[in-house]
């Protein structure tokens, strides 16, 4: 089965309907990631089949939960995950990736150019040093840090009423219990990624009015 066919099958299984142009860009991104990964070690996953499931589909599974988000910061995204797949899937979503490692931020910038992603921007910086002109509707991370650290490092980027979206493996009971004062668990969702036999959860955090 071709990469395009596997991608279409996976998206259909997740109930996500994207235009053909998005499918083409997602397949192109997977190829670009695999190419750069051979030299720059962007991710631990190198197999093309696993890039599709463990990176693309695993990133896009959160798409239905971001319908109210118009501006999104992706923290510590490495090879541009989940930010680049989300930007491809939603051209109306403005995505800013904040990545401290120069070679990874450079790859993201190259992907932006090659895939013509006008709604994606890569920033090479420490998240705690970033002071945006306008704060974001949502902050997302994928295996970035413990929840408490994620909140402490990035909450200053969040607009009033905004939310933090943490993509996790096993449900993080203990991490949720250690959330900083002023922040609470708003929602938790069990995620199912086709052909990925692993625990996946989306943890959504918001201010409780005192932060």
From TrEMBL:
Primary residence: cytoplasm
Keyword Methyltransferase listed: yes
Superkingdom classification of source: Bacteria
Stated family: Belongs to the methyltransferase superfamily. RNA methyltransferase RsmG family.
Binding-site positions, S-adenosyl-L-methionine: 76, 81, 127-128, 142
InterPro entries for the chain: rRNA_ssu_MeTfrase_G, SAM-dependent_MTases_sf
GO cellular component: cytosol
Subcellular location: Cytoplasm
GO molecular function: rRNA (guanine-N7-)-methyltransferase activity
Task performed by this protein: Specifically methylates the N7 position of guanine in position 527 of 16S rRNA.
Official protein name in the record: Ribosomal RNA small subunit methyltransferase G
EC number, UniProt record: 2.1.1.170
Entries under CDD domains matching the protein: AdoMet_MTases
PANTHER family attached to this UniProt entry: S-ADENOSYL-L-METHIONINE-DEPENDENT METHYLTRANSFERASES SUPERFAMILY PROTEIN
Source organism of this protein record: Nitrogeniibacter mangrovi
Swiss-Prot/TrEMBL catalytic activity: guanosine(527) in 16S rRNA + S-adenosyl-L-methionine = N(7)-methylguanosine(527) in 16S rRNA + S-adenosyl-L-homocysteine
This protein's UniProt keywords: Cytoplasm, Methyltransferase, rRNA processing, S-adenosyl-L-methionine, Transferase
